[in-house]
């Protein structure tokens, strides 16, 4: 089957679009609205009494991002942090996380309660009264 020439010339893309190409044809995709939607995070009840507010990195989007969090007193096993998307997705995504600190890696973090509006990260019992930058993670979402 012969290559067909696309409507957008090879090597160019309309504003707000990305481009990849192989030979004389090119495929163009529009950036998702999820690439710019606001993401927020809140400490879970198991993060203890008066934990610091999680901090979502400024460059974070629904599709990918990172945050740091900490714990208050009497932290326990369960939801350490919940992430809320600024937009509702059309279906429940697959969310992959990676610890960005050794302290979080040692707590065996896992994605739980994934929905079209966010996800939670649970862990084994963290230490009480740990600072906001003690636990860090990054995420990537796929539909």
Compact overview of the structure:
By secondary structure, this protein is mainly beta.
Name given to the CATH architecture of the largest domain? Sandwich
Unreliable sequence segments: 1-31
Helix content: under 10%
Helix tally equals: 1
Name the strands of the widest sheet in spatial order: 3-6-9-8
Separation of the first and last Cα atoms: 30 Å
The largest sheet, given as strand count, sense and whether it forms a barrel, is:
4 strands, antiparallel
Task: Characterise the protein shown here.
The protein is mainly β and 143 residues long. The protein has 1 helix and 10 strands, in the order βββββββαβββ. The protein has a 4-stranded antiparallel sheet, with no helix packed on it. The chain is globular.
SSE blueprint and pairings:
Layout: E1 17-22, E2 25-30, E3 39-43, E4 55-56, E5 64-69, E6 78-85, E7 94-99, H1 102-105, E8 110-115, E9 118-123, E10 135-142
Antiparallel strand pairs: 1-2, 3-6, 4-5, 5-10, 6-9, 7-10, 8-9
Highlighted features:
143 residues, mainly beta, Immunoglobulin-like, 4-stranded antiparallel β-sheet, 1 helix, 10 strands, 41% strand, globular, disordered N terminus
């Amino acid at each position: 089957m012969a290559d067909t020439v696309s409507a957008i010339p090879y090597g160019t893309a309309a504003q707000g679009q990305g481009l990849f190409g192989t030979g004389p044809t090119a495929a163009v995709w529009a950036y998702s609205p999820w690439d710019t939607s606001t993401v927020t995070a809140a400490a879970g009840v198991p993060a203890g009494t008066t934990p610091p507010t999680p901090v979502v990195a400024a460059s974070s989007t629904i599709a990918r991002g990172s945050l740091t969090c900490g714990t208050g007193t009497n932290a326990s096993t369960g939801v350490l942090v919940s992430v809320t998307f600024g937009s509702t997705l059309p279906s429940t995504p697959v969310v992959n996380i990676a610890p960005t600190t050794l302290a979080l890696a040692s707590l065996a973090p896992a994605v739980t309660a994934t929905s079209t509006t966010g996800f939670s990260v649970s862990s084994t019992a963290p230490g009480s009264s740990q600072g906001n930058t003690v636990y860090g993670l990054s995420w990537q979402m796929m539909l």
